[in-house]
């Protein structure tokens, strides 16, 4: 008993409860508020009718809540959880609080895969998942391997700064290819734009199920390695010296992370910084003497479940905000993101030419 | 106990360690000495399977590369030279990781984990700061934390790369004496990389003298750390310099 408590000092039941409450509240808020306003009573009535298998209440609200908003909210929560978990795992593995799917270029790689699948209609008939999902996962893993091997080629010590620089460059490169695909894709422009902007507007219950399965499987794989990730976060050499099978753990975590990011991207496009901010933010840190300490505290091992819970609540907030501001603001945001992506792509193209 | 045969490490086309052979028996403390760039730390790195090498490294007759990492960790404990810490783990968290090899899996905790950790904390004098973040520690405290981790790991052989790193005189003395006490238990041995020749002479039983990756001498410490062998290794009159320094204390 003492052992359990010793390793998880800043990780209390109260925190769990708080985050769970925040999650439920945000989820309810997101379901209620939107371009069509639905009262809390109607929301609860609709939810109850589904849970208790009663006939649906009359009116439009049932359909809006159950068929449109609820799967979106579930998707947002699961994507948030998955991305925070990935961020936490990568930050430990690479010993850098800046490591995350988006800064390492894995998300962009996955988007590129999804974009290619959309544009060329890639399918894997023998698999239950769509070609887009599979290509996103494959490209996420491929980009991770590519980025790490390129970084290794440049710098044998595989310093995290090199990894992140290569990741940012790769990310721009992938975006520039996506721009190229967009430029020549004709009819597919709209659906490819969706990946680049990142949106959960098309979330369905099948997406929820896919995300849930991926999170249960790969999340469990990552959580199984929390002690190993702790050791990595202290130092890779140290991990080897205490008996961690460095290569196996690295491989397992990377496969899990890229699969999770791939699934997230296939559902919601590129969603940046969730893994970065949610894992690095720890409001309960009373020992933090510096920013690094604060970031460190939100770490792995003891804090991965924390990241998971917090992550679930967090991405719902921007979603809720988007709902509150209504469709106009939502569109505006998408257009802004769209423009930003194009600029990045152009920049990368220039860089590539030079 | 540990036998290194024709160890060669090549990095970027240059041999950093060139056909080095040595061995250490139970109850002995082997000092690896030599000027900077002699390949001392690389040897430690190769023995712990952290660098590609040719030649053989045998532990109790078995090739070290045959062991699983967790098996190896129960036999060989390693303290490295630099500790770059970036996250706010506590002293105890770090030491607890030393028990990793014994507590693999989700729910398996070895019964003597707590005893080993408490002992390690006690020996290294870190009991008061066991809950402190490692980011707030001084260099010496950090070094002691990682030494405690290796002690909690309970290996048969200790590989110490610059134990005296960041330690002031008192802790230097205490740590070396601590390792000496640790060595008294049967079935244990120590290999350490040391810059301070006086410490090597004072605590070592055997020594291997290296220069530019090659073995100049290997044997009992009195023989290896003699003036005739040290002077060409360091390209200076070592004894004169040591006496010169000591004379300041007369």
How many individual β-strands of chain A? Answer: 0
User: Biggest sheet of chain A, in brief?
Assistant: none
Q: Based on Cα principal axes, name the global outline of chain A.
A: globular
Distance between the termini of chain B: 42 Å
pLDDT < 50 runs, ≥5 residues of chain A: 1-10, 280-354
Class of secondary structure makeup of chain A: mainly alpha
Helicity of chain B, as a percent range: 25-40%
Task: Output mean pLDDT of chain B.
Answer: 88
Radius of gyration of chain A, whole Å: 21 Å
The largest chain-to-chain contact, stated as pair and per-chain residue counts, equals: A-B, 38 and 41 residues
What string, H for helix and E for strand, traces the elements of chain A in order? HHHHHHHHHHHHHHHH
> Assembly state here?
heterodimer
N-to-C span of chain A = 61 Å
Main sheet of chain B: which strands, in order across?
6-7-8-3-9-10
Helix segment tally of chain A: 16
Q: Which sequence of SSEs, written as H and E, runs from N to C of chain B?
A: EEEHEEHEHHHEHEHEEHHH
- The percent range for strand residues of chain B is 15-25%
Overview of the molecule:
Chain A is built from 16 helices and no strands. Chain A is mainly alpha-helical and 354 residues long. In chain A, helix 3 packs across helix 4 and helix 9 runs antiparallel to helix 12. The longest helix of chain A is centred in the last third of the chain and has 38 residues. The relative contact order of chain A is 0.17. The N terminus and C terminus of chain A are likely disordered. Chain B is α/β, with parallel strands linked by helices and 250 residues long. Chain B has a 6-stranded mixed sheet, sandwiched between helices. In chain B, strand 9 and strand 10 form a beta hairpin. Chain B starts with a strand and ends with a helix. At the A-B interface, helix 1, helix 10, helix 11 and helix 14 of A face helix 2, helix 3 and helix 5 of B.
């Amino acid at each position: 008993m003492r052992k359990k408590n010793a390793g998880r000092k800043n990780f209390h039941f109260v925190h769990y409860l708080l985050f769970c409450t925040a999650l439920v509240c945000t989820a309810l808020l997101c379901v209620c508020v939107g371009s069509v306003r639905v009262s809390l009573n109607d929301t609860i009535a609709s939810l109850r009718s589904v849970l208790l298998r009663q006939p649906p209440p009359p009116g439009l609200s049932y359909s809006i809540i159950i068929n449109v908003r609820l799967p979106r909210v579930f998707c947002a929560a699961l994507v948030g959880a998955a991305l925070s978990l990935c961020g936490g795992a990568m930050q430990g593995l690479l010993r850098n609080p800046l490591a995350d799917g988006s800064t390492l270029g894995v998300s962009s790689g996955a988007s590129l895969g999804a974009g290619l699948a959309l544009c060329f209609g890639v399918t894997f008939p023998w698999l239950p998942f769509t070609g887009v999902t599979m290509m996103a996962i494959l490209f996420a893993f491929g980009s991770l391997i590519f980025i790490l091997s390129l970084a290794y080629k440049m710098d044998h010590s595989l310093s995290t700064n090199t990894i992140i620089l290569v990741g940012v460059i790769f990310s721009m490169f992938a975006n520039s290819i996506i721009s190229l695909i967009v430029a020549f894709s004709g009819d597919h422009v709209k659906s490819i734009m969706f990946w680049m902007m990142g949106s959960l507007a098309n979330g369905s219950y099948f997406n929820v199920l896919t995300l849930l399965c991926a999170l249960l499987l790969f999340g469990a794989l990552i959580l199984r390695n929390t002690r190993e990730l702790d050791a990595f976060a202290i130092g890779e050499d140290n991990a080897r010296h205490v008996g961690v099978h460095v290569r196996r753990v690295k491989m397992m975590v990377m496969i899990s992370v890229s699969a999770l990011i791939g699934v997230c991207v296939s559902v919601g496009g590129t969603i940046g910084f969730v893994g970065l901010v949610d894992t690095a933010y720890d409001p309960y840190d009373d020992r933090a003497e510096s920013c690094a300490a604060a970031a460190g505290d939100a770490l792995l091992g003891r804090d991965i479940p924390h990241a998971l819970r917090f992550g679930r609540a967090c991405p719902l907030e921007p979603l809720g905000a988007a709902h509150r501001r209504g469709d106009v603001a939502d569109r505006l945001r998408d257009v802004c993101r769209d423009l930003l992506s194009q600029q990045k792509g152009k920049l990368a193209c220039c860089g590539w030419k030079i | 106990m540990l036998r290194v045969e024709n160890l060669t490490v090549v990095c970027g086309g240059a041999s950093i360690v060139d056909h080095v052979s040595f061995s250490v028996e139970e109850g002995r403390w082997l000092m690896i000495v030599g000027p900077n760039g002699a390949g001392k730390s690389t040897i430690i790195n190769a023995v712990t399977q952290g660098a590609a090498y040719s030649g053989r490294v045998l532990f109790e007759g078995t090739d070290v590369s045959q062991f699983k990492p967790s098996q190896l960790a129960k036999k060989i404990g390693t303290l490295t030279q630099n500790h770059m810490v970036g996250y706010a783990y506590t002293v105890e968290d770090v030491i607890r990781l030393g028990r990793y090899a014994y507590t693999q899996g989700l729910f398996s905790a070895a019964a003597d984990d707590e005893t080993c950790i408490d002992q390690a904390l006690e020996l290294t004098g870190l009991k008061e700061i066991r809950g402190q973040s490692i980011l707030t520690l001084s260099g010496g405290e950090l070094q002691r934390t990682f030494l405690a981790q290796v002690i909690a790991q309970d290996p048969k052989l200790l590989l110490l790369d610059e134990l005296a790193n960041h330690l002031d005189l008192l802790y230097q003395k205490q740590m070396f004496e601590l390792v000496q006490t640790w060595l008294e238990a049967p079935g244990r041995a120590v290999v350490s990389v040391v810059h301070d020749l006086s410490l090597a002479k004072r605590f070592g039983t055997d020594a291997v003298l290296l220069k530019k990756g090659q073995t100049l001498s290997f044997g009992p410490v009195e023989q290896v750390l003699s003036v005739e062998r040290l002077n060409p290794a360091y390209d200076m009159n070592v004894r004169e310099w040591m006496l010169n320094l000591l004379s300041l204390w007369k």
